[in-house]
Amino acid sequence: MNRRAFLHDTAAATLAAGATLGFSGRLSAATPPTPAGARHFPARVTAASSPPLPAGKRSPFGWQTALVGETPLLLAWPDLPPSVTPTRLRFTVGLDVRDEKLIEVFLPQSGRVVGTFDLRYGCIFQPFEIPLAAADLPDLRREGLGLRRTKGADLRIFTTGGSMPAALQPHLLVPGATDVMTEYFARMDTLACVQSFSWQGGCVLDGLLDPSAVPAHAALRDAARRQLAQFIIDGKLVYENHVSDASDGRIYGIEGTLPFAALAHLEPASPLLENPLKFSSSRHDAEHTVIDGGHTSSEGAYTVGYPLAVIGRARRDEALQQLALTQLRTRHARLFDGRTFWRTRDAADGKLGDRNWARGIAWQLLGAARTFRALDHRSDLAADIASFRALAAWAQTYQRPDGLWSCFVDEPTTPPDTAGSAGIAAALAIGARQGWLGADARTAAEKSLAGLRLHLTPDGFLG
């Protein structure tokens, strides 16, 4: 079975690592794709089922979706130039996947199967791909392709929409001759990297804003504004994949507060910044740690602590700044003992979960690095920075020869985690740039960036 999924949020973190280290001299500028660049050829949907979405859901941004079920979804490319050679077939998830699915790809006339997508708990806006064999291209041009579900529940995928990039529609990829980092920046400067208003979207927004300070990538600041504009309509926050418009300040959980950090950077006077403040004031425990569901998780160091720090700095609000620092301090104490890092701790019984998970470590390190940078005017951060330095040094000991970190960092036989690796590297890069960490942290971040480049597709997505 062939499948590849992409992680837009980790691509943003990779970019943040490079930008904060000042790599602008080595990275290509953000430019539109040139004729030599990768091309995406959208499919024409010739047969599809599009029943109403489940209750309480809607398709984001007015984009259209279609169902992949037992009844096939049929795709065709009647205008595909004879001179091009597609190498991959892709589609993008249009509604969160809550199970394991197999999607079979076949030639509609002969019935011959050319590949299978293996989807496991994919999220909205996540593209998947399979490779195409050169021997199948003549039949593909003549017959098109069909998609049908053979395992799991029916799947929703995006098909078309007014602002939908070709890279998110069902499409054939034709690689170009352009450097993958140039392709990467081209994708980041469009809605091809859009994510929901959640931790995923917050990571992308941070990955746009950090390098926008470098002249070659200044346009990415406007790209961040365009992404926020997809969710802020007539002054209201609209969760585009939910019917609720969140105008009452509702936030779904601690992961949903991260994008407010970008909003605070771009529009520090926005009245919507009251939303995360109201949420935080209603979800804290006795030590003022903002938690979800009765357990502490490292996500909150980044998704709660960092936005509070940016808002607190903008408002010169000492209480908010202290609350931001509390999110880091209590999590560091509850989740890291100097030898082992746990992503979660249950408040009722103290049970710990997700031991040494790379992405859990990345949350804590990113939360600390970004919060301290937002509060770098303070003179009372020495102890906090020392804790950050200790966790960073511990994490560096587990870096693999390829520059990445394993999914569980102390288990080298588990696969490398590009998401966790990019997050850890971004935090090390920020720490090195700010002078809190030494040259070894900078070297580790550079090594990770080099390793992550090898996981970029020809058009710049991170696998």
Structure description:
The longest helix is centred in the C-terminal third of the chain and has 18 residues, at 318-335. The strands form 5 sheets. This protein has a 5-stranded antiparallel β-sheet, with no helix packed on it. The protein has a 5-stranded antiparallel β-sheet with strand order 3-5-10-7-8. Strand 7 and strand 8 (113-120) form a beta hairpin. It has helices at residues 8-20, 137-143, 180-188, 199-209, 220-229, 259-266, 274-282, 299-315, 318-335, 358-374, 382-396, 418-434, 439-453; strands at 4-5, 39-42, 44-47, 64-68, 73-76, 88-92, 100-106, 113-120, 127-131, 145-151, 155-160, 171-174, 232-233, 236-237, 295-297, 342-346, 352-355. With 463 residues, the protein is an alpha+beta fold. It contains 13 helices and 17 strands.
Write the layout of secondary structure elements.
Elements: E1 4-5, H1 8-20, E2 39-42, E3 44-47, E4 64-68, E5 73-76, E6 88-92, E7 100-106, E8 113-120, E9 127-131, H2 137-143, E10 145-151, E11 155-160, E12 171-174, H3 180-188, H4 199-209, H5 220-229, E13 232-233, E14 236-237, H6 259-266, H7 274-282, E15 295-297, H8 299-315, H9 318-335, E16 342-346, E17 352-355, H10 358-374, H11 382-396, H12 418-434, H13 439-453
Antiparallel strand pairs: 1-9, 2-12, 3-5, 4-11, 5-10, 6-9, 6-12, 7-8, 7-10, 13-14, 15-16, 16-17
Helix pairs in contact: 1-4, 1-12, 4-5, 4-6, 6-8, 8-9, 8-10, 9-10, 10-11, 10-12, 12-13
